[in-house]
Amino acid sequence: MENFKKKLSSLTIFFPCYNDGGTIASMVTQAMITARSLTDDLEVIVIDDCSKDNSRSILDELKKKYDNLRLIYHDKNLGYGATLRDGFYGATKDFIFYTDGDGQYDVRELVKLADLMKEGVGVVNGYKLKRSDPFHRKAIGKVYHFANSIMMGIKIKDVDCDFRLMRKEIFNNIKLKSNGGEICVELVRKIQDNGFRFAEAAVHHYHRRSGTSQFFRPGHVVKAIKNLTKLWASYRRS
What we know:
- It is a single chain.
- This protein has seven helices and seven strands, in the order E-H-E-H-E-H-E-H-E-H-E-H-E-H.
- The protein has about 240 residues and is of the alpha/beta class.
- It has one domain (about 5-235): Spore Coat Polysaccharide Biosynthesis Protein SpsA, Chain A (Alpha-Beta Complex).
- Strands 3-2-1-4-6-5-7 form a seven-stranded mixed β-sheet, with helices on both faces.
- It is globular.
- About 40% of the residues are buried.
């Protein structure tokens, strides 16, 4: 019988963090506990994208407690995509899991993804059972997913679900360029194009416990639309 605790040979968990001082400590702590149920070889990385709150002081204290916690601090706000790229290309283990540092996903549900990470599967992607967001965000999310399925050929159920377990080897084959939230579309499309197989798992989505979304500010939405249009145009030309 397979030893559940050895399900993953090694694992990097990382969190992008921006003004997540109210949640990041519990996210890191729960990540450490959950990861130990899956592997003996693990690291946790937090990439702080120049938070304005007390996130960094909290992370500095956590570092004193966990030797296998690695911190990356941006001196200026570089954007969600740049933050994710630091995690993807900075990870050192065979498998990479990431989710946001705001507590809208439960890290413990990583075990669901690990159960589906079989031979031949490159990515296990979460999809939200029910989106716990205001109505306008739900509506925008549906339009966003529909547009990406048509324009970009995205085949998974929920490209906007930042709860993913991936093989590190994927990032030896793809080069991500996006600095904004459109990186998730770029990521999934390039993984598809490189022939890696997806599995999908239903996960819970919770109300944001602290901080505010950066993506749904009007200026960010306009910028994201422009960036997605450029991304779509680049694929049309290729």
